[in-house]
Amino acid sequence: MRLDARGVPVSAGRAESLQHYETALQQFQSYVGDPIATLDAALAEDPDFVTGQLMKALVLYTLGERKFLEPVQACLSAASSRSDQASDRERRLMRATEQLLAKDWHGACRTLDRILIDHPRDALALQVGHLMDFYRGDALNLRNRVTRVLPHWDADMPGYSYVLGMHAFGLEEMNQYPQAEIEARRALEIEPRDGWAVHAATHVMEMQGRIEEGMTWLESRQQDWAPDNGFAFHNWWHLALFYMDGGRFDKVLELYDAGVHPEASSMLLSLVDASALLWRLSLEGVDIGRRFEVVADEWAAQLEAEAGYYAFNDFHAALAFAACGRRDDLGSLKQAMRRTSSGDDLLAAMSRDVGLPLVDAAEAFSQARYEQAIDLIEPVRDVANRFGGSHAQRDLLTLTSIEAALRSGDGARARHYLAERRVLKSPESRWGRRLEARAASV
Ligand SMILES: [Fe+2]
After folding, report:
1. How far is the CA of 199 from the centre of ligand 1 (A)?
2. 19-60, pLDDT tens digit by residue?
3. What are residue 119's DSSP bridge partners?
4. Comparing C-alpha atoms, which of 140, 105, 139, 142 is closest to residue 126?
5. Ligand 1 center to residue 312 CA distance, Å?
6. Residue ranges of the domains in the chain?
7. What gap in Å lies between CA 2 and CA 261, rounded to an integer?
8. Residues 302-319: tens digit of each pLDDT
9. Residue 427: pLDDT over 80
10. 267-291 in b/e burial notation, b at 16+ Cβ within 10 A?
């Protein structure tokens, strides 16, 4: 058994595989480079690289798309066929992968935590756990999973900054904004190119309404988080949100075209941000041209493979279909979601309890049935974390409720939600003030 740079056991036939593992880990943590290509090259040379097979399975799984389940299963099978050579840690990684494939995300996250008890410096188990905490909307563990292992890390260990970056994001999602920012800045002192830590501090500024500072924060460090970074589209999205708040819609569209959605994509994580930004622009009545039709086409191309898999993605597909009046696509999506929701697993619950009512709400809103849209969002809004995403992403539900109230002439209801948003998003938010001005005259 070999040990990685943090002392975690890794089964591999060749010493070189360990170096490939370190490279792939760094790529996975930093979003710079392609960990799958690195692992594929290593596995071609070393079929006994069990951790490599498992890492490939887990990295693919965390992309959150159904189309990757088959290669995930293939990697798991390859690793399982060598389970006699595997360590306890690797057998647990196999178990976690099985649980993910069985849609038992809670179980998988517990298994990953069991690994972290024995191997708190297991950067793979930690990162996968963090991402799955995000996908299942578990803010507590976005913070606490990292808190539990932090005493075992220090600045001399490779990848320490990424652990701090994860902790920062968890603290932010638990509304501990000053602590989150301190942690993110510590991470960036060690590794300025940590896009996740940049992102964590960006969330703090977004939530605290530090709009001008947020713009400067992202723009001044653009060379750190944008070039060659697979996560850059999301930090561009955040920058666009700052401009959105300031009412600079021309700039928002420019950022959309250049950074958020510069070209056709089949990556759902990026389509989610495209839909989310265009929906916000539509709420504000901005002329977005044909952009939503283009994104709806891209979602439609994914329908057959992805509809009814992960409710958070489904909802964002529905935003595009509803906004473009594409009833057939919306119908197919809802049919797939209903099939999923009849199951008894976590993804079924996400679809049933959160996804479907919100898809109906988006449809109602787009057809100017505003009161119905509010009625559909209202019971779900407070538990919408169950289908994942961040506070900033789910703010779309509150914004839609406010806009629906304004358009239906219900100023009291709009002011009711605005009072809440004013506390959650800071009175500094100019977007909030714009809406308050409109609500005052309804
Ligand atoms: Fe974000």
Report:
1. 6
2. 999 999 999 999 999 999 999 999 999 999 999 999 999 999
3. none
4. 142
5. 14
6. 1-134, 159-262, 264-442
7. 42
8. 999 999 999 999 999 999
9. no
10. ebbbbbbbbbbbbbbbbbebebeeb
Domain 1-134 matching CATH 3.50.4: the answer reads: no
Rounded to the nearest angstrom, the distance between the alpha carbon of 391 and the centre of ligand 1 is 8
How far away, in angstroms, is 235 Cα from ligand 1 center?
7
In angstroms, the CA 294 to CA 256 distance is 13
Q: What token pair was written down for 216?
A: 């400067």
pLDDT at 422: 86
CA of 238 to the centre of ligand 1 (A): 7
Domains 1-134 and 159-262 share a fold: yes
CA 64-150-191 angle, 5° bins: 70
Alpha carbon of 91 to ligand 1 centroid (Å): 33
Ligand 1 centroid from CA 203, angstroms: 6
- Please tell me the distance between residue 273's alpha carbon and the centre of ligand 1 in angstroms: 9
From first CA to last CA, the distance across the chain in angstroms is: 70
Fold of 159-262: 1.25.40
CB 204 within 8 Å of CB 184: yes
CA distances from 35 to 32, 96, 205, 275, 368 (A): 9, 20, 30, 27, 45
**pLDDT, position 317:** 98
Q: What are phi and psi of 83, to 5 degrees?
A: -65, -20
Which token pair is 362?
Answer: 């988006």
The pTM for the full model equals: 0.96
